[in-house]
TrEMBL record:
This is Transposase.
Amino acid sequence: MRNSKKFTDQEIEELESLAVVEHATASRITYSHAFQVYCMYQYVHGTRPSVIFSNAGLPSRLIGPKRIERCISRWKSNPQLMAEVRQLDEEGRKPAMRDEIILSSLSEIQELNRTIITLQERIRKMIAHLR
């Protein structure tokens, strides 16, 4: 079954601005390998998928909860990806804290960008109304 959610041009632009997204189209998102490893590491250590994606700037309201579920399911069944996650554990490492800080900062920046866009649209409408 395919996702019925189609992304607008603005949403595609927003998705492609994220470091964790390699490419986005109206119907697909291609995630970076680093994000896949980071995501599955966090997942196997108890973080909810919606929280992981949201912290990376990919809230379920934007990409849809089913898309998140499918990613987790697909990545969980990828032996090579899960071997990388296990190797991090065996080495006593986890994806760099720096990456977590970057992902958190990216999420905040994305939210601020959405606010700026909304405010710019309001200003344009107010100016047009005044003319």
